[in-house]
Amino acid sequence: MTETAVVEVPTYGHYIGGEWREARGGDTFETLNPARRDEVLARVARGNEVDVQDAVTAARAAFPGWSRTPMPVRGDVIGRAARLLEERKEELARLMTQEMGKVLTEARGDVQEGIDMAKYMAGRSRGAVGETVPSELRQKRCFTERVPLGVVGCITPWNFPMAIPTWKLMPALLAGNAVVFKPAEDTPLVAIRLVEILIEAGLPAGVLNLVTGTGEEAGHALVQHPEVTAISFTGSVEVGRQVAVACAGAGKRVGLELGGKNAMVVLADGDIELAVDGALWGAFGTSGQRCTATSRMVVERAAVGPFTEALLARVRQLRLGDGLDPATDVGPVINERQLHRIHRYSEIGKEESARLLHGGAIATAGALERGFFYTPTLFGEVAPGMRIAQEEIFGPTAAIIPADDFDAALAIANGTRYGLSLAVYTRDLRRAMEAVDRLEAGIVYVNAPTIGAEIQLPFGGTKATGNGHREAGATAFDEFSEWKTVYIDYSGRLQRAQIDTAGPA
Length: 505
Ligand code: UN1
What we know:
The chain is 37% helix and 21% strand. The protein is of the alpha/beta class and 505 residues long. The protein folds into two domains: 11-258 and 466-484, Aldehyde Dehydrogenase, Chain A, domain 1, CATH 3.40.605; 262-446, 3-Layer(aba) Sandwich (Aldehyde Dehydrogenase, Chain A, domain 2), CATH 3.40.309. It has a seven-stranded mixed beta sheet, with helices on both faces. Strand 4 (28-33) and strand 5 form a beta hairpin. Helix 1 packs across helix 7 (215-224) and helix 4 runs parallel beside helix 5 (163-174). 2-aminohexanedioic acid binds next to loops.
């Protein structure tokens, strides 16, 4: 007798005010494995404005106590979270591959980026947070310090389900804020694990609240809520602009980390083999689903032939598959909607008469049909103004754009609305430095692809990529704190600045 196995799918709630609970409306949604769409990993609470209200109320109540907790004590919590992340790195990476699709080595890197950020912030908790500045008056001290904002809403994307939440949560919490965290609906499980770790590390109830759900419901309610002082958002330009408008209307501070259309400039004097290694990793790592992905290769005309030939040979060898399989080079893309969006761009490229060198199709061979797999796609003879050279595709699609010379290559690299990450490959130091000066982006690489940012440096972009904020690095607190300037006059008399300033004694 055969029986159909009934697989029990675990259910997860929101974490509000120190307890796990169902959505008030009782609604849930499913999170699934993009390598096998029929594999439902869990059912998760689907939050709406009532849940967000509960979370904000809990955060407001916890804020005074947490903001007055000494920073090194807050840092100890983050430090313990770093150790727990490290202990559970492998388990977290595997979960991430199952939920998001990126290959296991990259998932380990994503978790490692979270560990790095937690360690860095724990260390910073004992560092200086302001400066002492001389007064023009005698017996007067002036200094600055940082104060938290209040309740901060952190809205994160699915492509770096651990790294990006830690870029936001760790500095926001360390600065003394209470947080409402709304992770992407495609990757709630990794977010739930991160919240569990922060609770285990000793975060008091209400300081961190998790509301899972969609951007339209939970995200929207968080952005609109009058008692949320600031929003930190990473996602698309389109949604980011809506978030910015809503925040402007409510007088709310907002940090935006949006899209990219990153380019590597390959000059004819560069190490072509090295550039090909970089292009392959930059364009097809994480199936191209990075805001930093190298989606354009701007190649000096003399090098176009050898570069294209070598890259094409490597692209042809890329193996698609489940990210848990060590033989896989490129995992699935996140969901069906993205799969079709990526495919639409292949059609657009062909309509624009770019030359399709490889791919351009949804992959359906064998087991791939069960998941959301897209063939690594390479276009040649792409003109800088084409849509495939201007719009963020967020998939395994790259465009080779020939350039007449160095100046033309830099102009093409700079010629999009984005400004996240740009790279140059050259052996000529003068041209490398000239490119560093002239490339218009928040991050510039020399002889390395456009991906690979490290957490101890500022991360973010210019132009439509952001709104001036930088995450991580020495700038990590800027988004999550206010400056307070303190003047202490111990002269015992009224001293008027700009008026009573005396000459030398
Ligand atoms: C992103 O693409 O959203 O530099 C973040 C990198 C990673 C972070 C990427 N360290 O590619």
